[in-house]
Amino acid sequence: MAEAVKESNIQDVIAEQEKIVAEKPDNVMAHHMLGLIYLRAGRSEDAIRELEKAIEIDSQSMESIVNLGAIYFGRGDYDRALELNRRALKISPTMAEALVNIGLIEQQRGHAAEAIESYEQATRIDPRLITAWLNLASAYTMQQEDAKAVQAARQAVELDPDSGMAHNNLAVALYFSGAYQEALHHLERARELGYSVDPRFSDGLKAKALQ
Question: Spans of the TPR repeats (predicted)?
């Protein structure tokens, strides 16, 4: 019953926003918001159409460009996602979020060095952007740069001590650096914070810590 009510509510929101778009067909934000609502409802094709319309009206609409890039990233169309995030970065060279997105795309492609470069640039622009530090730690681990991975993961934990993901990433980095006891402490903290810990990693770490 709850799901049915939820579905009914989203349909009401869609209908209301569609009415706004019909009344204001040249309003960038109206199309942008409708695109996000469609995305929330699982209507990705409609979301793409509305976000593209917003960009057609205003080619500098960074929010629409970045959100459209996120949809293509989710679809595995990394070329299109990369193109859109680079476009956003050209409009605003200090947009750290776009740099993080580019890093994610490069990391997904297995290009760890390129991902690291993008994440590092993001941390220089916005040192408090936790997603940049989290992903930087992961990319350093991929490159077996364990000391740097620990440093980046510690920065993420310092920025948000209540982030289960940050504690998990630090546990992984510490594991590869050989600090098993400290890694186990952070893994347990990640679990306490509700993070879904990989049981295989947890078992392997406990075995190492007991040696």
Answer: 28-61, 62-95, 96-129, 130-163
